[in-house]
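User: Teach me something about this protein's shape.
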Amino acid sequence: MDLKPEFAALLQNNDVPSESTILELTESLKAPSSELQEVEAEIQRLGRLMEMMEMKRQSIQKIINDHKIILSPVRRLPPDVLHEIFFHCLPTYHNPVMTSSESPLLLTRICSSWRAIALSSPRIWSQVYIPLPGDPNYSSGYGVITDQATLNRRSQRFASVLRLRCDAVRRWLSRSGTCPLSLTVTYPSTYSDVQNLEIDELIREMFDMLLSFADRWTDVDLSMPEDIYNKLQSNINPITFSSLTSLKISLNQAPHWNNTATQQFPIRLLDAPRLRRLHISATQTSYTPMLRQSFWNHFTHITFASPTTDEDVLVLLRGCPNLVFGKFFVIPSSQWDQTVDQFAVVLPRLRSLYMQDSGAHESMAILFKALNAPSLTSLSYHWFSHRSPGDGLDSAIQLPVPVIPLLENSTLISYLLLDGVLSRQDTQKCLQHGARVTHVVFGEETPASWHPQNPSFILDTDVVRPDTFNLKMLSIGSGAVTLLPKLESLEAYHLSSLTDEDLLDVITSRIKASQQGEVAALKSIKIHFQRQRQRDITEDVFRLTKEAGIEVKLDLTYPPEDSRFVDRFSPSFGFTSNDEPWFCLAGYS
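Assistant: First, the predicted structure itself:
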């Protein structure tokens, strides 16, 4: 029923209706009100019917689900298939944690048959993460605890956890049959010098139990203070570790409150007969005495995550003729031993080298000149020697970057990463020796850099920090020599002065040159800028690649465009989004 025109007109304004209009409207409401009641009653009836039908549907569905559960294909999987499935349920990037919320313990909580199968699957119990609670005498938030009552309670709790964990690990590994073991053992890096005989005895019990499986240790990760590791290795005979092939060991020096020096011990595990892969972070005194021993010639993969002197690196490399992968963080020697540079360093199998070079220039020049790596295909070089900033960085660099001789002699390099303060001339020299480089990286990706503590600097468009690496040198025709003719993947980080137009010119020149057969076609471009986008070049690149009949993956990253709080000229500059008053205290109003 529609309103009369004179009533409908009242909906367009806020005029007061007349008495006669009110009476007529009240009378005309009776019919639709009655009709509404009938409709609502019908809705309620249909609602009750829907509820009944829903209950019936759920009842039927339950019967169907029960049948499907019984008919489920997983019930008919043979145990050997479930063994394989259970193994692939284990974590990918770390050893399993001893908790019922993760595999393999979780698999024992599903049903009795799965529990029986899981407990009879040795492979899923051959990996385990074992955290030791640490020193009860020391609190990370308090320091050394002196209150005896608190210390007694903590000691009891720590001892209880250690006993339970030792028993749990023993049961866990007893299920592993004869499988090779992958173990991770951690101990907090901070502890006191206060003796706790009960805790020490429990730690030794844990270590003795783990050492009883020493012949099956294959992949081991140890992270603990040197003093704690010395308790472990006091009973170590390297020969018993006949299966150990990979070792990651991180030994830190804890503070010694009584100012006594820690007695240094050699890392005996390094002499395990089949050890091939090593990742080590430790003080130099832990491994320097062992650098001239013969067991290094078995290693194929070595990472020294802690600083190592240039002299020690040279000595080590000379003893590793079978090295395939090496990663080193180099610092200067206090005194260079001239006797170590008499012979060449021949590494015929070396394929990948990562060098963070803060060593003395003369020493590193000797090292790289001596290095003979004919199979090298991947080189990551970070030069962090002290340099003062100059005009474009070039005038501050007097000595050539030490790595150039290695690039001259290694003609198979296909992956090249350059980072640090290299002059334009040195960068060009490095790239001139990259005839086979297909993937180049300038700088290194650090996600935190996209959210700097002082982001307003980025938006000071009148103050632009020169880029360490000028990508314009990669343009075809920019120099007498074409750099990186085989280049397919380009990455660069922390760029500020390179404009979007400059980048487009580089891409355009290389795409056009690839059409002429002068260089390889680009396939991937990943650039991270420390400035805001000036121009969107995505469509231009897409058009160029379409015309050339190639595909290029383009990944350009810029800081957030919302500059209200970081633009110096914005009315909101310096404003924070925290709405809480500065005088507001928790629990107080």
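Now, about its shape. DSSP finds 15 helices and 18 strands in the chain. Residues 5-71 form one domain. If you'd like, I can walk through any region in more detail.
User: That's plenty for now, thanks!
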